[in-house]
Amino acid sequence: MIRHLRITVDGKVYDVVVEEVTDQGAPAPHAPPAAAVQPAAVASHAAAAPVPSSAPVAPGTGEAQRAPLAGTVLSVAVKPGDAVAADQEICVLEAMKMKTSIFAFKAGTVTAVLVKAGDAVDSDQPLVTIA
């Protein structure tokens, strides 16, 4: 699985791609080669295309996208009813002066947004639900 992350170090922003590997250390068969770390000003971080919703989804149903770390919500890029693609940025958290983009773990429809900009969140706290 490929994960796109934006990391800020000493005020300089980097877009990085992290690639999951199998137990044998080889890249997962479905994953393209990982890209080199590039400054965000140079890297083009294309947003994933939204996936159209096929049927209405009940509010709050689905699986929770959880915070990977404790921090403060800087921005939320989705709202209930939005169709999202896997690895599409859904919000940005800040912790210890570092910004971390949070990406959808799967494609689907956002059924609930549980946080707003300025909220403090704990690690593993649900941020949105996606069905």
TrEMBL record:
Keyword RNA-binding on entry: no
Domain Lipoyl-binding: 55-131
Assigned keywords, A-Z: Biotin
CDD domains, per the entry: biotinyl_domain
Domain of life of the native organism: Bacteria
InterPro entries in alphabetical order: Biotin_BS (IPR001882), Biotin_Carboxyl_Carrier/Decarb (IPR050709), Biotin_lipoyl (IPR000089), Single_hybrid_motif (IPR011053)
UniProt protein name: Acetyl-CoA carboxylase biotin carboxyl carrier protein subunit
Source organism of the structure: Blastochloris sulfoviridis
Organism taxonomic ancestry: Bacteria, Pseudomonadati, Pseudomonadota, Alphaproteobacteria, Hyphomicrobiales
